[in-house]
Amino acid sequence: MSDTRRRVKVYTLNEDRQWDDRGTGHVSSTYVEELKGMSLLVRAESDGSLLLESKINPNTAYQKQQDTLIVWSEAENYDLALSFQEKAGCDEIWEKICQVQGKDPSVEVTQDLIDESEEERFEEMPETSHLIDLPTCELNKLEEIADLVTSVLSSPIRREKLALALENEGYIKKLLQLFQACENLENTEGLHHLYEIIRGILFLNKATLFEVMFSDECIMDVVGCLEYDPALAQPKRHREFLTKTAKFKEVIPITDSELRQKIHQTYRVQYIQDIILPTPSVFEENFLSTLTSFIFFNKVEIVSMLQEDEKFLSEVFAQLTDEATDDDKRRELVNFFKEFCAFSQTLQPQNRDAFFKTLAKLGILPALEIVMGMDDLQVRSAATDIFSYLVEFSPSMVREFVMQEAQQSDDDILLINVVIEQMICDTDPELGGAVQLMGLLRTLIDPENMLATTNKTEKSEFLNFFYNHCMHVLTAPLLTNTSEDKCEKGFFFLSGVCGWHLSCLSYGCQVHSVSCSFFLLDNIVGSNKNNTICPDNYQTAQLLALILELLTFCVEHHTYHIKNYIMNKDLLRRVLVLMNSKHTFLALCALRFMRRIIGLKDEFYNRYITKGNLFEPVINALLDNGTRYNLLNSAVVELFEFIRVEDIKSLTAHIVENFYKALESIEYVQTFKGLKTKYEQEKDKQNQKLNSVPSILRSNRFRRDAKALEEDEEMWFNEDEEEEGKAVVAPVEKSKPEDDFPDTYEKFMETKKAKESEDKENLPKRTSPGGFKFTFSHSASTANGTNSKSVVAQTPPASSNGSSSKTTNLATSVTTTKGSLVGLVDYPDDEEEDEEEETSPRKRPRLGS
User: Fold this and answer.
1) What DSSP element (H or E) covers 768?
2) Are strands 69-75 and 62-65 parallel, antiparallel or unpaired?
3) How far apart are CA 256 and CA 309, in angstroms?
4) Measured between alpha carbons, how far is 666 from 676 in angstroms, rounded to an integer?
5) Given its phi and psi angles, is residue 134 left (phi above 0), alpha (psi -120 to 50 degrees) or beta?
6) Which InterPro entries would you find in this protein's record (predicted)?
7) What pLDDT digit, counting tens, does each position of 633-673 carry?
8) How many C-alpha atoms does 747 have within 13 Å on its Cβ side?
9) Following DSSP, what letter does each residue of 530-548 receive, concatenated?
């Protein structure tokens, strides 16, 4: 038996009774030694891999449908289908199957599916005719016909025989003629019987019967029969809806009559399945599987026919992007594309690729930019759905477009910024659209789906683009809500206000259709400790939570770019302002953001946290929470437990030295005592190392001045500060943080040598209830009255007369953690000795002292 190859698509039926495309290849019928029998083999046309290897079992029921389909079940709940490109190929494989099973190729099903009990029953019965004898198609026989159709549904073999009888005698058209007569005579009883008959025929699950019932000649009468459900007091009006209410809108006239007929048929059959027929019971789930397949393959044909009509698609795009097109017409065009993209999901992968590439070539992305900015909510929603199809298909295609666009357009009209604007300005109280758009943004900025090309530039190029052109738009609501001046005045960013331009945030938008302004809150929740206030609006809090979720994703996946952004904008400090929100979910989002940062165990982040005293709002939130055992309490405790378990020394030292007095009373967990133990163990370890060093190396001659180092660290962290955003490192464009450390080390060594002869620091004097003033008197500067420098905690910057001075705002209880500035040459051994020589009052008081 020679191999015959035919081009086919392989489908499997999933749990949702939908057909999944497994690929395209060529089918052959050949003997397979391992399976010990004739088998169907399908090899992929792309790489020759084996898509299907199925033995032609003599007892398996194969069905031939619509001239180009062969469907069968391999096992329980595992259905397979081969869709042939040509009828001739289907006929040839069907003959091979029938030859193996000893059947006549003229049949459309090779076996009867019967269970054991039914098989035994039929063995005991005398031979019967192959077909069921149908009653004559008359009004007075309708009850008998209904009883017959209903009785065969429980028997697979009787269902098959009834289907053959209905098909051979042209019985369905005769029944529909009776329906018209009953309706004219207002014969309600007859109409109820016809409902049962037509519903039962649909449950026979026979494709050849569907082709008759869903033809233009019969389908409306079929719908009419299904209106007269005996369980309803009044019949439904489905035909009225399909003919009068449901309007077929042609955005561009469709000249192909076959395509028009296929579209009408598919809509009506989908309506019958989804609306008219009741939801099938557990015992009827498989009754309509062929109906599902009928709709599926219709959709495949529609998309293929539209895609091949290049003139049609070109005309649609021309009108969509034409400024002269009115809003109603554009709405129809967008809805057409939404349905078109939804139908395209039925295509096999390579055809779907070609489909979306065709749309991209015709300009779908620039068109989306226009329609996503329209005021019409329905249009924006449809455009978002289309955009989601494109992102799901190829994130790289969208990224490539926006990067090319950035070279020709301003940031204001970039597609990604349009998407961010829609997310920020979502008017839905539950932010349903914003959640969808946030997911799409996350897909676009996910490095995992960025192509690994030969030059590997997509990730770096796109992330550079995103952080330079889009990140400021995304974080605008967050920065606005947590800025000091806005917090003091009680202003906040309201969802629905334009977050598009930063200038709009300050002065009110003059160019956008959405009114841009700030709104004063009546009920602002403040913190008793620092009087910072947070948005007390649920919709705004939800928006900020979404933005924080996206930023948290960036921390996990964009190590370098997000690190620079956090430092430049002092972003973590701003985020932690939200720990004061009355909305616990928002406080948890802020805490989760910090937890991800600490989870990286990056000493650069650790220095930033300790220098900024950024644990204070977290600890304040824990203390304010009191003895309540809730999610916030557990999340904060887990944060500190992680630091203890991972033994992050710089953070452990900072927490113990500054906050232990406030935390030592918490005894329901051993986390904080554990941190203290870790801290003391590290001190003992350093003391042992110090004792093992020869005394000459510990003399003052060879020791660096810890106080000078502390001052120098403060200088370094504040040298590059920007006025806006309190930046603590250089911007992304200037330099990489990692590259600063060698230069900083050289500066430190020069400063150290210049200050070896300086006098010791004066003891701290309390200057205000919340601050301490540390004055560094240097021998040279004291004599000359110049170069005096002071670091003032929580006091405004000031300059001394005739001298060059520099001041820095620090939090109340901040101290420079010994050894925390990892990477600078500062040995804990030396500092421990300083600690022994100096008196304890030199230390800054801890929180709660």
Assistant:
1) strand 765-768
2) antiparallel
3) 10
4) 13
5) beta
6) ARM-type_fold, EVH1_PP4R3, P4R3-like_central_dom, PH-like_dom_sf, PP4R3-like
7) 999 999 999 999 999 999 999 999 999 999 989 989 999 99
8) 14
9) T--EE---HHHHHHHHHHH
Dihedrals φ, ψ of 771, to 5°? Answer: -145, 160
The long-range contacts involving 357-361, CB below 8 angstroms and separated by at least 24 positions, are 358/307, 358/313, 359/313, 359/390, 360/390, 360/397, 360/401
Token duo for residue 263: 């579209």
Res 182: pLDDT: 94
Mean confidence (pLDDT) of the chain: 75
* pLDDT tens, position by position, 439-482: 999 999 998 888 765 556 778 889 999 999 999 999 999 998 88
Cα(318)–Cα(310) distance, integer angstroms: 12
Contact indicator for 72, 109 with CB cutoff of 8 Å: no
Whether residue 711 is predicted with pLDDT greater than 70 in this model: the reply is no
**CA 259/CA 246 separation, integer angstroms:** 18
Residue 206's alpha-carbon distances to 358, 372, 501, in angstroms, are: 36, 44, 60
Residue 614 token pair: 């950024």
For residues 663 and 848, give the distance between their C-alpha atoms in angstroms, rounded to a whole number: 9
Q: In what order do the strands lie in the sheet with 69-75?
A: 50-55, 37-44, 19-32, 6-13, 78-84, 69-75, 62-65
Q: Which two tokens stand for residue 627?
A: 């003895």
Chain centroid to Cα 555, Å, comes to 16
The string of DSSP letters for 646-671 reads HT-HHHHHHHHHHHHHHHTT--SSSH
Radius of gyration of the chain (CA): 38
Q: Which long-range contacts (CB under 8 A, 24 or more apart) does 602-607 make?
A: 602/559, 602/563, 603/650, 603/822, 603/823, 604/563, 604/737, 604/738, 605/563, 605/566, 606/648, 606/650, 606/651, 606/820, 606/822, 607/650, 607/820, 607/821, 607/822
Tokens found for residue 653: 């030292």
Distance CA 438, CA 444 (A): 10
Contact 85, 79 (CB under 8 A): no
Q: What residues pair up with 19 in beta bridges, in sequence order?
A: 13
pLDDT digits (tens, 9 = 90+) for 12-41: 888 777 788 888 888 988 888 888 788 888
Contact criterion met (CB below 8 Å) for 16 and 285: no
With 0-12 CB in 10 A as exposed, 13-18 as middle and 19+ as buried, what is 163?
A: buried
Helix (H) or strand (E) holding 585: helix 584-599
Give CA–CA dist 241/696, Å, rounded. 99
Tokens 């620039």, residue? Answer: 366
Amino acid at 620: N
Token pair listed for 169: 């005698």
Distance CA 537, CA 539 (A): 6
Rounded to the nearest angstrom, the gap between the alpha carbon of residue 70 and the centroid of all alpha carbons in its chain is 38
Angstrom CA distances, 163 to 78, 134, 695, stand at 23, 11, 104
The sheet with strand 765-768 has its strands ordered as 765-768, 771-776, 789-792
Cβ neighbours for 471, distance < 8 A, ≥ 6 positions apart: 565
The residue type of 610 is T
pLDDT digits (tens, 9 = 90+) for 544-597: 999 999 999 999 999 889 999 999 999 999 999 999 999 999 999 999 999 999
Among left, alpha and beta (phi > 0; psi -120 to 50; other), residue 66 is: left
Residue with tokens 């930019």, as numbered in its chain: 369
Matching residue, tokens 């992680």: 642
Give tens-digit pLDDT for 505-539: 333 333 333 333 333 233 333 333 343 444 568 88
Residue 284: per-residue pLDDT: 56
* Residue 119, token pair as written in the block: 């098989």
Query: Could you tell me which residues come within 8 angstroms of residue 233 by beta carbon, excluding any fewer than 6 positions away?
Result: none
User: Under a CB-based contact definition with an 8 Å cutoff, are residues 200 and 150 in contact?
Assistant: yes
Can you tell me the distance from the alpha carbon of 686 to that of 831, in angstroms, rounded to the nearest whole number?
Answer: 10
In the chain, the domains with their CATH numbers are 4-101 (2.30.29.30), 141-245 (no CATH), 283-458 (1.25.10), 601-687 (no CATH)
Give CA–CA dist 771/812, Å, rounded: 6
